[in-house]
Amino acid sequence: MSADSVLNVVIIVIALFNVVVAGPLAIYLRSLTSDLRALKEELDRDMARLDEQLQKFKDEVHVQYVRKTDYVNDIREIKQMLKELNAKLDRKADRA
């Protein structure tokens, strides 16, 4: 076999490899890359939507809910006011 025929065989083997293995592999990888981009875009949209919902919840939580410490302090204040009112009524009742 001459060098030219060996070179031709090598070129044919490389061409067959490209057609049989590398071509379909490249097509598959391109498809996979496209699918991953689509999934990333969908994930980015979902994350943006979740961020908006979280911000909306943070904005509304102060209107709908009361912290336990605030509730306890408010109840304590109301009880103190009721005690003061009761004491005033008792003093007025004693005068009458």
SSE layout and pairing:
Blueprint: H1 3-64, H2 68-95
Could you explain how this protein is built, in words?
With 96 residues, this protein is mainly α. The protein is built from two helices and no strands. The radius of gyration is 40 Å and the shape is rod-shaped.
Features of this protein?
2 helices; 96 residues; 2 domains; mainly alpha; rod-shaped
* Whole-number tally of structural domains: 2
Outline: rod-shaped
Fraction of helical residues: over 70%
Largest sheet entry? none
Radius of gyration of CA atoms, rounded to a whole number: 40 Å
- Terminal residue distance: 134 Å
Strand segment tally: 0
The secondary-structure class comes to mainly alpha
In what range is the share of β-strand residues?
under 5%
How many helices? The count is 2
Runs in which pLDDT lies below 50 for 5 or more consecutive residues are: none
Average pLDDT figure: 89
Helix and strand sequence: HH
